[in-house]
Write a sequence for this structure.
């Protein structure tokens, strides 16, 4: 009997119903428990007084003799009814039963005339509202439609589909709506089947797609989808979220309507109807949403409990449903009001009653309700009270010892002290809710307790209970006292030199500082006794720049945090700006404009120097390789080739030299951007030789370079690709024409980067 109090509980509760005008109505209610039990009824929260029209039967049910939707005085028997049962243990209230009058409106959609070619699809529809939902049947030529014909499909919402039309399908159609309130007939519509079956191709087309539906679990959903085309399209269904539709309870009505029986919440989703042309990817789609609601039901019921006075009682009530239900608590049939000692948590799923007393003894109900329905469960709280328990402890006092410590003292109770086994001190921040309270146990011979690890400048409440083996005493009077204030802790301080006259002081905000209102910053020259400051900074500031300092002296910087209780201890740092000044002198700031001009004037000399230096190194290596052969002719050729190769004046801006194995393409790209050789720079780098003998040997000075069209071009060997090969013992054959060994050097193409 989950969800029931053994002292008083419902066996049968009233349920939703649809009543017929001028007909009797019975609402059932059956209760079990400790007699005597009194049963009463309410409608829309108002007590129903027994009358000739409505009265309570002996079994507790409510009898309405002649149900009327609207009475002469303007009142109505429609509404929400609930049953209340009461005995000396408490009172419980049933779920609400919604009672509505059976009705039927006029048709707001009638079938329409249709002319359709043979082999096509015809669709008729009629709609009407009513309670309960009317059952709609179709007649053809005043006779019920033959539902055994597979080409005729009747959908629950008043739709008639006829596929593969034939001439004999022509006729006059109308629908008949029936419920317990009335029977109504729609207007008539004529169906005309014309011509013969066409063979002209037509793209698939969905005439009617699924509509959005909201239903309750265990009901049946019908999603309509009717398509035309030539050839006749194939209709298929899928879910937009990609989940499988499944097969259990799934049925196809007619040529493409989807019916889902015994709905569950898992059936909720967006359904897509697709009409495909056979053998192709040509398709048309339509979609509709299905929302399945579930009435509230309990996953965990509250349980009846017994607790000693002064302890805590907890009831748990967990419900599920779609949409998620709202939970409401009742105490003896009345909505439960929360207070300091009655708390609701976890979306009202947990009811906690702290420090219970005799007044809390009652029947507590959990009501779970959503748009699909409601349910209730009840449980009883019994407060245990034993005779001879101690009276409350006396003379409770609390004295502040420090910023984190309070001493609480008390005196023993006045009555029934022999069975006391100890005391329990209840501690709570005055601003916190009751559920944040905690306890400390104290021996029976101790009448004081030092409470430590408290927060500074905080108010705390204290009360005491005396405990015996049979239960606890009532709580003592509550005393409230505050801890002392505390100055903030030392902040962390860091000093950063910005330039020769400025330093930046930074510190880190931290909860270890405690409650603080701000910071004070001081600084001074170390040889002086007077500080500059304080500089007052807000609590959210974490940096400050100290400017206009003297770079030749050392400074002391001091920072502290303060609050209403005073200044905390300070953090001190020393800083010198002298090193910054020295670095500035050794590394003066660059004059970028001046350096740029100097760079422009020396660019030509640097380029020429690099080219000539690399050329000399290359030929020195070649000379070492081949010099031991004694080929004097080679030396002469090398000396003649040391002269800078001349090129036509129109190409004189090119340097013609490759560095570090660059390819000829790279060289050409650089030559296009090269600067024209400065002849004065050449004279400075290569002054004229004073020896006439050197001039006669053909060594050309820098200022007397001559142009020769048949001059030999010098191939350059990249230094990073160069290697010396050991001499083979076989002598090289001499060229009969007297060529120098330099002509046998390998051809140096572009460097192989592999």
């Amino acid at each position: 009997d989950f969800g029931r109090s053994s002292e008083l509980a419902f066996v049968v509760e009233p349920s939703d119903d649809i009543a017929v005008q001028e007909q009797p109505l019975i609402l059932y209610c059956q209760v079990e428990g400790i007699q005597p039990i009194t049963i009463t009824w309410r409608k829309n929260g108002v007590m129903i007084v027994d009358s000739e029209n409505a009265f309570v039967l002996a079994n507790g049910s409510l009898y309405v003799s002649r149900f009327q939707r609207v009475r002469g005085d303007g009142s109505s028997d429609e509404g929400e009814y609930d049953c209340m049962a009461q005995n000396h243990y408490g009172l419980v209230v049933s779920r609400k039963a919604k009672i509505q009058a059976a009705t039927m409106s006029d048709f707001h959609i009638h079938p329409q005339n249709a002319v359709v070619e043979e082999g096509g699809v015809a669709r008729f529809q009629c709609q009407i509202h009513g309670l309960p939902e009317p059952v709609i049947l179709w007649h053809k030529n005043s006779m019920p439609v033959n539902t055994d014909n597979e080409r005729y499909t009747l959908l629950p919402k008043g739709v008639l589909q006829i596929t593969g039309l034939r001439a004999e399908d022509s006729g006059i159609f109308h629908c008949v709506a029936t419920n317990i309130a009335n029977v109504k007939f729609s207007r008539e519509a004529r169906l005309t089947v014309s011509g013969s079956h066409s063979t002209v191709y037509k793209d698939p087309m969905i005439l009617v797609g699924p509509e959005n539906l909201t239903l309750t679990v265990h009901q049946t959903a019908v999603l309509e989808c009717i398509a035309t085309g030539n050839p006749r399209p194939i209709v298929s269904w899928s879910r937009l979220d990609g989940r499988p539709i499944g097969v259990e309870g799934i049925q196809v009505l007619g040529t493409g309507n989807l019916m889902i029986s015994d709905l569950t919440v898992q059936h909720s989703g967006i359904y897509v109807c697709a009409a495909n042309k056979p053998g192709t990817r040509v398709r048309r789609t339509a979609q509709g949403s299905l929302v399945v609601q579930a009435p509230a039901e309990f996953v965990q019921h509250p349980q009846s409990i017994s607790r000693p006075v002064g302890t805590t009682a907890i009831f748990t009530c967990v419900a599920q449903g779609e949409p998620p239900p709202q939970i409401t608590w009742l105490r003896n049939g009345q909505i439960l009001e929360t207070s300091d000692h009655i708390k609701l948590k976890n979306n009202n799923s947990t009811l906690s009653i702290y420090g219970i007393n005799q007044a809390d003894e009652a029947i507590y109900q959990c009501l779970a309700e959503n748009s699909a329905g409601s349910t209730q469960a009840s449980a009883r709280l019994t407060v245990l009270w034993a005779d001879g328990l101690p009276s409350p402890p006396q003379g409770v006092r609390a004295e502040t010892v420090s910023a984190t410590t309070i001493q609480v003292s008390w005196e023993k109770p006045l009555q029934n002290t022999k069975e006391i086994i100890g005391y329990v001190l209840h501690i709570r921040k005055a601003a916190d809710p009751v559920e944040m309270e905690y306890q400390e146990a104290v021996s029976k011979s101790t009448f004081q307790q030092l409470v430590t690890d408290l927060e500074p400048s905080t108010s705390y409440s204290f009360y005491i209970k005396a405990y015996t083996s049979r239960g606890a005493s009532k709580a003592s009077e509550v005393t409230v006292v505050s801890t002392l204030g505390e100055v903030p802790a030392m902040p962390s301080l860091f000093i950063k030199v910005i330039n020769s006259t400025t330093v930046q002081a930074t510190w880190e905000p931290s909860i270890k500082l405690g409650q603080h209102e701000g910071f004070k910053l001081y600084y001074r020259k170390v040889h002086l006794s007077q500080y500059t400051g304080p500089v007052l900074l807000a609590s959210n500031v974490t940096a400050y720049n100290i400017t206009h300092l003297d770079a030749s002296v050392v400074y002391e910087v001091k920072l502290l945090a303060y609050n209403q209780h005073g200044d905390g201890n300070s953090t001190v740092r020393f800083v010198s700006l002298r090193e910054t000044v020295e670095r500035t002198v050794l590394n003066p700031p660059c004059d970028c404009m001046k350096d740029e001009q100097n760079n422009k004037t020396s660019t030509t000399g640097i380029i020429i120097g690099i080219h000539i230096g690399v050329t000399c190194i290359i030929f020195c290596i070649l000379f070492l390789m081949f010099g031991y052969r004694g080929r004097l002719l080679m030396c002469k050729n090398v000396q003649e080739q040391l002269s800078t190769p001349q090129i036509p004046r129109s190409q004189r801006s090119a340097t013609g030299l490759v560095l570090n194995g660059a390819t000829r393409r790279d060289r050409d790209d650089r030559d296009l951007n090269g600067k024209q050789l400065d002849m004065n720079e050449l004279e400075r780098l290569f002054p004229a030789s004073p020896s006439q003998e050197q001039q006669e040997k053909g060594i050309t000075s820098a200022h007397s370079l001559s142009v020769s069209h048949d001059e030999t071009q010098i191939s350059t060997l990249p230094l990073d690709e160069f290697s010396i090969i050991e001499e083979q013992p076989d002598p090289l054959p001499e060229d009969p024409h007297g060529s120098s060994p330099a002509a046998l050097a390998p051809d140096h193409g572009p460097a192989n980067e592999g």
About this structure: Confidence is low (pLDDT under 50) at residues 631-754. The domain at 105-282 is CATH 2.60.40.10 (Immunoglobulin-like). Residues 1 and 680 are 116 Å apart (CA to CA). The longest strand covers residues 283-300.
